[in-house]
Amino acid sequence: MLVLDRKISEGFWIDNRIFVKVLSVGRRRVKLGIEAPNGISILREELLERSADSSNGRERPVPGEQDQEETFRPVRR
Questions:
Q1: Most buried among 20, 52, 64, 71, using CB within 10 Å?
Q2: Is 48 within 8 Å of 55 (Cβ atoms)?
Q3: Which of 30 and 46 is assigned the larger pLDDT?
């Protein structure tokens, strides 16, 4: 696991296609902004866990994993 320190308004790139930016930091919360191509699904961990629990341990396909053409609005670098 990579651990990074970032200040508000700082961010980082993942695979030169996904940009993650720190928008705000509260007492017990960090708000992140994520810019990614349309073909990449971004799911919160608790939703994946809930999906696995409701399917009785059987794996279910992750929404958005179908082959999709990557089209997205360029983000600032």
A1: 20
A2: no
A3: 30
